[in-house]
Specification:
Number of domains of chain B: 2
Distance between the termini of chain A: 27 Å
CATH architecture of the domain at 102-331 in chain A: Orthogonal Bundle
CATH class of the largest domain in chain B: Mainly Alpha
Organism (chain B): Arthrobacter terricola
Shape of chain A: flat
Shape of chain B: globular
Membrane topology (chain B): Multi-pass membrane protein
Family (chain B): Belongs to the binding-protein-dependent transport system permease family.
CATH superfamily of the domain at 102-331 in chain A: MetI-like
Keywords (chain B): Cell membrane, Membrane, Transmembrane, Transmembrane helix, Transport
Largest interface: A-B, 105 and 105 residues
Number of helices of chain B: 13
Structural class of chain B: mainly alpha
Radius of gyration of chain B: 26 Å
CATH superfamily of the largest domain in chain B: MetI-like
Largest sheet of chain B: none
Protein name (chain B): Carbohydrate ABC transporter permease
Radius of gyration of chain A: 27 Å
Order of helices and strands of chain A: HHHHHHHHHHHHHHHH
Number of strands of chain B: 0
Largest sheet of chain A: none
Number of helices of chain A: 16
Strand content of chain A: under 5%
Oligomer: heterodimer
């Protein structure tokens, strides 16, 4: 009757010796036991069919690119390859070129600064807002959901708007600062090598605050009120309550938010390309944008692939952290 | 000062102090509301600025006035004229990607949640790992494959690639919902003789309607916002999503911000509509996708 129990029974058994023979037996005189077995096999096959399209898709659009990228990184893969079909093996030459280039250390440092700056900013402001929105006040829900807007807008739209706001001569920010007499001349937010990265990080913080706020708010809501009530009896209120009750209880959510944030920030491309295109003078070039430039602007696909793989390895380190943080919620 | 306060308090008339007691927390609450509105105003200023700048007359690069006192729609005229086709392309790709994504993700989520097929753990693991793979790595490999398959500059090519933003997320979020679905309902249908496909189509799909809508809306937004695949998997103007149109606008020196901002406003419409009209689903998606 219950199919799921049938399945779990068969699944719980280890190997099934002789199962292959049963399948080839003629259906003319099925023994009841064999019949049931083959029905179960068909049943399981049917169940797998529901999953097959997703498995194929994931294999083609995530599995294949990763493998292909590794292969390409060992080849001299350029535009010529598209005409001749030849991509000679060059061993580690692509990695050697990419890693020894002076641009690599610049992009690596920029990637680190961009990621750390963005994550710290998003998290601190997001957590502060999440704690603020824990209070009960009129319109709380509506205002909180409207805050999601920056996160839902296409990144390239946000980049375009910020390009205009941060414009040196007539951008809103410089005009605002000018009217307050904080600055006399326009600050070249996006065109100065020393400011561009800070500006890009600032925009990325703006984009990431809603996500941090929402997830952390959800985490805060799950902390039972009784804990705070018990804590207040022991004199734990305000900062003490935060340190001894809120923070420990929020830790699992915090680690998921931070690691997800790092993984997503490492691969950011849209915002940087939209705001500065990696410039001025590579001051906002990250590993992701550099990989893009190598493949799609210089058409050195092999080198682009090699640099992409470096990014994958960095992400994988954080992937391990991510899986450890999220295993519980997935199993649950 | 303090002494007068202390002496004053007990001497205040009973009715007045009673009145003050009830309204003070109320006033404090509205104080928080005001503070929240200030936060919101700061956070949404760029959105305001985008709308404001889109309503300025063409060609005024020098000074955008703080308020659109004399709204001018010439920016929108230029935007629709130049980017209307690209908006249509984006719409077709986004809708196609929603269909593809749900067709792949819903059965998969069902298999993972209800059948608990062998290998489910591996599939879930692969989905999580897939989130670590940078888009540029996928694009790099897909470009060469698409070049061989003739899928560059094609709508099906972009639908297939863009769905990679939505499918893993959709599987996770629909599965999380289906985990909470009573198995007895499906078993009852199966006992009544419904095949797997029919039980799925007529019982499971209607029951998980909300999670399907959430997954569909987010897939739409992801694909609509896609920039990377638009940038890398198209080489001509034949198929050009609006995100790429905006990028090309801002790639060159901009002397007509009002039409750029008008295009940006038009490209923001799906996000704004969803936030206002489908808030419940958006809220479900933000929390469900990341933590569950």
């Amino acid at each position: 009757m219950s199919l799921s129990t049938d399945v779990s029974l068969t699944n719980s058994g280890p190997g099934k010796p002789g199962a292959t023979q049963e399948e080839s037996q003629s259906p003319a005189q099925p023994s009841p036991r064999n019949n049931r077995r083959s029905r179960q096999r068909r049943e399981r096959l049917f169940q797998w069919l529901f999953l097959v399209p997703a498995v194929i898709y994931m294999a083609l659009f995530f599995g294949y690119p990763v493998v292909k990228n590794v292969v390409m990184s060992f080849q001299d893969y350029t535009t010529a390859t598209f005409f001749t079909g030849e991509a000679p093996w060059v061993g580690l030459a692509n990695y050697a070129t990419v890693l020894s280039s002076s641009l690599f250390s610049t992009s690596l440092i920029n990637t680190a600064l961009f990621t750390i700056g963005s994550i710290v900013g998003q998290f601190v402001v997001g957590l502060a807002l999440a704690i603020f929105f824990q209070r009960k006040f009129p319109l709380n829900g509506i205002l909180r959901s409207l805050l999601l807007l920056p996160w839902l807008l296409p990144l390239i739209v946000s980049s375009a708007v910020w390009r205009w706001i941060l414009d040196k001569d007539s951008g809103a920010l410089n005009r605002f600062l000018g009217q307050l007499h904080i600055v006399d001349t326009g600050i070249p937010w996006l065109t100065s090598t020393s400011l561009a990265l800070i500006a890009v990080v600032g925009v990325n913080i703006w984009i990431g605050i809603p996500f941090n706020l929402t997830i952390l708010y959800g985490g805060l809501q799950e902390i039972p009120d009784e804990l705070y009530e018990a804590g207040s009896l022991d004199g734990a209120t305000g900062w003490k309550a935060f340190r001894h009750i809120t923070w420990p209880m929020l830790r699992p959510v915090v680690s998921v938010v931070l690691v997800l944030g790092v993984v997503y920030t490492l691969k950011v491309l849209d915002i940087i390309l939209g705001l500065t295109n990696g410039g001025p003078a590579n001051s906002t070039q990250t590993i992701a944008t550099q990989s893009y430039a190598l493949s799609f602007q210089e058409f050195k696909f092999g080198e682009g692939a090699a640099l992409g793989n470096v990014l994958v390895i960095i992400s994988l380190v954080f992937a391990v952290l991510y899986l450890r943080a999220s295993r519980r919620s997935v199993d649950e | 000062m303090t002494t007068t306060k202390i002496t004053k308090r007990p001497s205040a008339p009973a009715s007045a102090s009673h009145h003050a007691k009830t309204s003070a927390p109320e006033r404090k609450k509205w104080g928080y509301t005001v503070l929240a509105i200030v936060f919101l105003a700061i956070m949404l200023f760029p959105v305001y600025w985008m709308i404001n700048a889109s309503l300025q007359p063409n060609g005024t690069t020098l000074e955008t006035s703080w308020l659109p006192l004399k709204p001018d729609f010439s920016g929108y005229a230029t935007a629709i004229n130049e980017q209307g086709g690209n908006l249509g392309t984006s719409l077709i790709i986004s809708l196609g990607s929603v269909v593809l994504c749900l067709a792949i993700a819903a059965p998969a989520a069902y298999a993972l949640a209800y059948f608990k097929v062998r290998g489910a753990g591996v599939v879930l693991f692969a989905i999580l790992i897939s989130q670590m793979i940078p888009g540029i790595v996928v694009a790099n490999a897909l470009y060469t494959a698409y070049n061989d398959l003739g899928l560059l500059n094609s709508i099906p090519g972009l639908i297939l690639a863009d769905s990679s933003h939505g499918i893993p997320f959709a599987i996770l979020i629909i599965r999380a919902f289906m985990n909470g679905m009573p198995a007895s309902v499906i078993e009852a249908a199966r006992v009544d003789g419904a095949g797997h496909v029919r039980a799925f189509w007529s019982i499971v799909v209607p029951l998980s309607r909300n999670s399907l809508i959430t997954a569909g809306l987010f897939t739409f937004l992801f694909t609509w916002s896609d920039f990377l695949f638009a940038l890398t998997l198209t080489t001509t103007e034949a198929v050009r999503p609006v995100t790429l149109g905006i990028f090309q606008y801002i790639g060159a020196y901009v002397n007509d911000w009002s039409s750029v901002m008008a295009t940006a406003v038009l490209a923001s419409i799906p996000a704004i509509i969803l936030l206002v009209a489908a808030q419940k689903y958006i809220a479900a998606g933000t929390t469900g996708g990341a933590v569950k």
